[in-house]
Amino acid sequence: MMLVTGAIGNIGRALVEELHALGAGPLRGLTRDTAKAVFPKGVEAVEGDLARAASLKSALEGVRSLFLVSRVGADADILDAAGRAGVDHVVLVSSITVQTHPHLGPAGENVAVERLLKDSGMAWTILRPTQFASNVMWWADAIRGHETVRVPYADVGLPTIHPADIASVARVALTEPGHRERTYALTGPERITPRQQVEAIAAVLGRDVPFAEISREEAHREMATFLGDEAADAVLDLTGGDLNDELLTVRDTVSRITGAPAKSFPQWVSENAAAFA
Ligand SMILES: NC(=O)c1ccc[n+]([C@@H]2O[C@H](COP(=O)([O-])OP(=O)(O)OC[C@H]3O[C@@H](n4cnc5c(N)ncnc54)[C@H](OP(=O)(O)O)[C@@H]3O)[C@@H](O)[C@H]2O)c1
Q1: Is 97 a domain residue?
Q2: So what's the pLDDT on residue 21?
C-alpha cells in the first residue's frame, strides 16, 4: 500500500494520477477533507491531519511506501508514526534551500526533517525542488481582477519547476529500484523571470496583464502582514535578494530520472489558464 500526502495539492494530485495510471498497486490519498478529493476510481481517499500525527493511524495502516510533503505538519511525529506503522520507504519533498540557503529559518526546518528521516531506520529518497511554477497562483486574484501584478526582483530569473515533474520523479522513486538513499535537487528546464512569467500568462489569456516592479521594502511590508517578518525576508532573499550559483543552476535531474524533458513554465500556464481568466 502506498500513501500520498498532500494528495489534492500541486504535486500530490499529479502523483496520484501517475501512480494510478501505472497500476502501481493499492493507493491511498490523504486529505483533511475527503469531500474535496476527486481521485481516479480505485484510489482510496483517507482523512488525516498532518499536524496531529495521532490522526494518521488508520491512513498509515498497511502502508509500505509513503510520499510526504514536509513542513505542512508535525514532521518528527509523522515520521515516528510511519516507522511504528511499518513504513519501509519514504519519499520526502524537502527544498533546494537546504543546499542554497541552509541558514534561513524554513530551510533549517527542512535540514532537520531530512536528518530525522535519515536517522529513522526507514529507507529514504529526498527531493529538493526549487520554487514551483504554481507559486504564481499568488497573482491569480489580481490578474482576474485586471489589477496590476506588483513584484520585486522583476528581472531575476530562477529555474522554476512544474510540480508535475516533482510528481514524476516521486513516482519513479516509489516504483523503480535504485532510488533509495538518494537526494535529488530538482529544477525546471530554464530560468524564467517574474516579468517573463507575467508575459507568458498574458500570452495565454490573449490580453495585457499590467505589471509593476516594486521595491524590496514595499514587498516586505505587504508580505509580512500574512507571512510574518522572518518568512517574508526569507522569500525575498530566495527570489532575488540573496542569489547564489546553487539557486540559479538549471539541472537535468528531472529528465535523467523520468526520461522525459522537464516541463516549461508556459506549459504550466497553458494547463492552468482558467485560474487567471
Ligand atoms: N512552493 C514552493 O515553491 C516550494 C518549494 C520547495 C518545496 N516546497 C514544498 O512542497 C510542498 C507543497 O507541495 P504542493 O505545492 O503540492 O502543496 P500544496 O498544493 O500547497 O498543497 C498542500 C497540501 O498539503 C495538505 N495539507 C496542508 N496542511 C495539512 C495538514 N495539516 N494535514 C494534512 N494535509 C495538509 C493539503 O491537503 P488538504 O487541504 O487536502 O488537507 C494540500 O493538499 C511542501 O512540502 C513545501 O514545503 C514548496
Answers
A1: yes
A2: 97
Query: At 90, which CATH number?
Result: 3.40.50.720
Report, as an integer, the average pLDDT of 220-239. 96
Choose one of 69, 78, 79 to mutate for the ligand 1 pocket test, by most ligand atoms within 8 angstroms of C-beta: 69
Report the C-alpha gap between 105 and 59 in whole angstroms: 30
Q: In what order do the strands lie in the sheet with 44-47?
A: 44-47, 27-31, 2-4, 65-69, 89-93, 123-129, 182-186
Q: 237 falls in which pLDDT band (50, 70, 90)?
A: very high
Kindly give, in sequence order, each residue whose CB lies less than 8 Å from that of residue 55, ignoring residues fewer than 6 positions away: 47, 48, 49
How far, in Å, is the centroid of ligand 1 from the Cα of 150?
Answer: 24
What is d(CA 205, CA 203) in angstroms, rounded to the nearest whole number? 5
- Give the number of domains in the chain: 1
Confidence at residue 132, expressed as pLDDT on a 0 to 100 scale: 98
> What pLDDT was estimated at residue 87?
98
Distance of CA 71 from the midpoint of ligand 1 (Å): 8
Identify the residues whose C-beta falls under 6 Å from ligand 1.
6, 8-12, 31-33, 36, 49-51, 69-73, 93, 95, 129, 131-132, 134-135, 163
64 within some domain: yes
Residue 192: beta bridge partners? 158
